Amino acid sequence: MKSDKKRIGVFVCHCGINIAGTVNIPEVVKRLKEQADVIEVIDHQYCCSDPGQNLIKETIKEKKLDSVVVACCSPTLHEPTFRKTVSSVGINPYNCEIANIREQCSWVTDDKEKATDKATKIIKTIIKKVEHDEPLTPITIPVTRKALVIGAGVAGIQTALDIATAGYPVILLDKNPSIGGHMSQLSETFPTLDCSQCILTPKMVEAKQHPNITLMTYSEIESISGYLGNFKVKVRQKAKYVDWDKCTGCDVCVDKCPKKTPDEFNHGLTQRKAIYKMFPQAVPNRVVIDAPNCLYLEKGACRLCEKHCPFGAIKFDDQDQITELEVGALVMATGYELLDKQMLGSYGFGKLKNVVDGLQFERILSASGPFMGEVKRPSDGKIPEKVVFVQCAGSRDPENAMAYCSKICCMYTAKQAILYKHRVHHGEPIIFYIDVRTGGKGFEEFYKRATDEGVLYIRGKVSKIFEKGDKVIVWGADTLTGKKIEVEADLVVLSTAMKPAATKEFAQLLKLTQDEYGWFTEAHPKLRPVETLAGGFFLAGACQGPKDIPEAVAQSSGAASKVIGLFTSDTLEHLPVIAGVNEDMCSGCGICIDVCPYKARELVTTEDGKKRTVKVIEVLCEGCGACSAACPVGAAQQKNFKDQQIQDMVKGGLE
Amino acid sequence: MLELIESLQEIKKDIELLSGQTLSDCYQCGECTAGCPTAFAMEPVPSQAIRLLQLGKFNEVLNSTGIWLCASCNVCGERCPRGVDYGKIADALRTIVLRNKLTHLTLEKIDKQFISDAPQQAFIAAFRKYTT
Amino acid sequence: MKQIAYYPGCTLYTKSKNLDLCARETAQILGVELKELETWNCCGAIYSTVQDDLANQVAPIRNLIEAQKISNKLVTLCAACYNVLKRSNHNLFLPENDIYRRRMMNFLDTEYDGKTETVHYLEVLKNDIGFENLKTKVKTNLDGLKVASYYGCLMLRPSDELNFDDPDNPTMMDDMFAALGAEPVEFPFKGECCGGYVLVDKPDVATRCSQTILESIVDAGADCVATTCPLCQYNIDNQQKLMSKQFNLPVFYFTQLLGLALNVDQKILNLDNHYIDPKPLLKQKGLLK
To answer: Which residue among C45, C52, C193 places its CB closest to the CB of B121?
Structure first.
């Protein structure tokens, strides 16, 4: 026996009758003793029990073992247990391996003969693995305990508040001048009909005032580098042309500004000034100048705002500012948009004035909206006597738009129809629908309320919408009676499909994966819904898929708790069973970079500058082995799963 | 009532094969009926015809007047969210009837004055769609 | 002069001579010769969507092969011919229809690679001649004439096979009329069906379809309608006699109004071949003496 030879001990577990009922354990022990190059083979009724673990510890000491194989259940169950056991007596935990003879052997056959043979082979295989195992130490990485939340709608605000309340600093970023997102545009919320602004505004103010939250509005991500716990993010704060330290949000400048342009917040239903506040309750309560529309910035004449500002806050020489942030985790809360009506040709391409989308109708219903809460139609301000709501406008339509159900439309359409009826008592709301989906608390009751209050539901998808005089004609069908139906409406509301607000370019910038429609992909659709496959990136709200407010808020708290969990320690331990690169062998072909699902590999030039090679960002590597399998020259080798080791394991199994 | 083919499943296979459409793709939204220019006179309307076919009521549809009113204008197929083209299904249904030697239209039925006035194209198309 | 293969089709040779002759004449004026195929046969007038109905595709494919002797393009005027020729070619040369393609070639005992592109005369005007260029050739400006361009089904759908114009909002004919100085009228029924061949079996159903279209056109304030298809023309013009409302609205082939703008001889325009006499309107607008 050579002196550098490993001193391996094998422990075969009966697992009661789970293993021993099928596998002839004394026979396995006998064969291993005869055939395998090991110091000791012992069996035990329950290796994971206290006596079992003690047996392992005592044997290690007595026989001076340096490596251990436990033949028992799946490693997902007790690998951590036995690794802890061996390390308590001085063996490196990564020199303890599990041979799974339960799930992969005794449980899948009744044939005792074959089970015994197979168990022996599995154990021999693992013995070969242990022979090559190196002692490994977990990688320690520092964590910057500060989070960046991108998008400050209700999801982003909730995430930021939860993280901040736990005691960690958060930067809450939004591309708009104010936080609040789409929820600040809504009138009332289903199914309770409480006022959206009234429940959101306190949260917005809380976010503004929270000592741990820094707001960065009117800002966009410029670039990002780093990894889990250690990100560097460059943020571009767009020029506001207003000194926000001096501005008080008094709106004198807004009154004086002569230039008008369509108001985004009201979805083009009204005009705003070139210097503007997004909405009266904006947080921060400040104004910005929209440069392309400003007469002075574009044409060099005007400066009325500057003249009238009582605080000297106008700053025409303002510039975009780049700030570099260091954060440990990022939460995407970029939300949704509605499908552009131009996509819907047979519904009038968005050209018909009295055909609005769901968010426009929210603004029409809103007390702070274009008509101060009175329901009027855009073309002439008349009160619409008959309003048709068209559900699934672009949703559930794989041929022409989005294949998925946008989920919230059934309820918000019911809500809008009810609110319309509340405002226009003699009005006739008609909803065309394919199916009414009411899977939520209080939703079915709310649907009932809509029909009780006089909303007419017609089961059929609308085919065509066009103008006739000052009416809007809707061609639908009632599939329940088989009748084609024509409605002369005064106003039509399209429940246009939800689509992700984050663009493909944005996702690429952050190296996040999206589904075919652009929704961010979660790490696991069921068990890891708020995480992504990229370490340190979490998802909150509708950026991951259509969601209503309570779902978005719940997911946001989930994402926040993940961030808080990450921040509980200022260092992170990362499993050391990761891939490495043999620089001498690596040709720099980059195949492994393409196959790596964790973006843990990058192309670099060697220190001497002579060749291209691949570097592993160890923190990001999850040890899946894709690179080792893909590498054409064998330069990518996974620790404790080296090619040689695997070949020996195969041989061991075939002996 | 016509009993065209004994096994109903055979007819379903024929309809799907001849039309190139999958009947189960239809989720009965009714957009085809909503946009159909002749739906006002059709019995059953397109969405109901597909539903009847889904239910295996093949003879009911094959014997209906609705399938002869389709003008092949293709609005239904163009807008269907599920990629089901009722025009093609109607074409297949008519073909099944016609291939069983059951002509829908005869020359005697057509007004003589109309024959001399109307464009040839109308007759060629009609005879292609309506006769064996 | 540039030659492009031209396929008139059956109806244009008889009852719709004005659609045909005006096109040949205007093309000549605009520097393109529509060279009629040496031999051709009826396209079948309606496309059969029945998957195994190969027999119905023989005629259109033969015409397309014949066109190869002249050009890689085959011009048609009749919307139905356009629909049938273009779809036959498109679908026969889909990869999944390879077996049908081979059977067809065996039957015709020839080789053909599907390279004949069916184009509508409007596309020639737009792409080969150009509407800007056309504008400069106008002799009689159609100023003050409000024209409703009626495209019907066959030019527009199925859009993935024809790819002619936006199926919900076509503009090609409108753009041409704008170039001629006329005022294109927007109406929501540009692509609705006139009733088509249903006319032969159920005239009342077809007539109701065309009446709905005419109502929409009159609502939009048009002086007249322009069509691209003899059957549309018949349904919209002649069937006015059976409608429950009297519209008295003249219906032209688009090539007649094009001919008028280019001062084509009255004999060729053949304004007598209409149910609703269009001459009073044209005189009133000062477009006809």
So the answer is: C45
